[in-house]
């Protein structure tokens, strides 16, 4: 019981449409052009992110992040959000689920290519703050299949996509959640924070 209390949580941090999709059928960044962003939402998200020190990504999301965040603060029109998140990204420990990336090519990054449940369990028992999963639907689905996600921060956008990549997939068993907190933004986005209720 005491061990459970100090274990790090794995938190899914994701924008989702009202009908449950995390990306539309469009390719690349265009698949996310329905996401409503605003300075107040950025600030809310950044406050939460700054309390953590580890990010988990699937390969595609990681490569998108690597192509932008390390140098985002260097651009002449960089926003305060760009500066804050770029600093955080560069110092954060990154975990990537991938069967193709090589560890030696990615410093300050831990590549998980197999034994998902064991590897995530080791991470949860290591010292540190929460582990945030940013987007990364394929990685999230793999983690769901093993019932490894402890908390969901869902940014529900007021849009129906009709089709796309679903958030929830590979959920094998009925899973009870507890709503811990909610926050409504002027844009109509609602942040819902759910904890997974584990059977003790």
TrEMBL record:
GO terms classed as biological process: riboflavin biosynthetic process
MF terms in GO: 5-amino-6-(5-phosphoribosylamino)uracil reductase activity
Entry superkingdom: Bacteria
Boundaries of every Bacterial bifunctional deaminase-reductase C-terminal domain copy: 9-190
Listed name of the protein: Dihydrofolate reductase family protein
């Amino acid at each position: 019981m005491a061990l459970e209390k100090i274990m790090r949580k794995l938190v899914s941090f994701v924008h989702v449409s009202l009908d449950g999709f995390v990306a539309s059928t469009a390719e690349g960044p265009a698949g996310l052009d329905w996401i409503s962003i605003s300075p107040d939402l950025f600030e809310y998200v950044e406050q939460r992110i700054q309390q953590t020190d580890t990010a988990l990504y699937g390969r595609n999301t990681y490569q998108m992040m690597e192509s932008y965040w390390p140098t985002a603060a260097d651009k002449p029109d960089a926003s305060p959000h760009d500066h804050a998140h770029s600093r955080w990204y560069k110092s954060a420990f990154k975990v990537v689920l991938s069967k193709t990336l090589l560890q030696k090519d990615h410093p300050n990054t831990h590549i998980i290519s197999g034994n998902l449940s064991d590897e995530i369990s080791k991470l949860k028992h290591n010292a540190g703050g929460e582990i945030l999963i940013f987007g990364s639907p394929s990685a999230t689905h793999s983690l769901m299949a093993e019932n490894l996600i402890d908390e969901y921060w869902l940014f529900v956008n007021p849009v129906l996509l009709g089709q796309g990549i679903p958030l929830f997939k590979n959920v094998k068993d009925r899973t009870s959640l507890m709503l811990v907190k909610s926050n409504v933004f002027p844009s109509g986005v609602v942040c819902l924070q759910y904890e997974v209720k584990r059977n003790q």
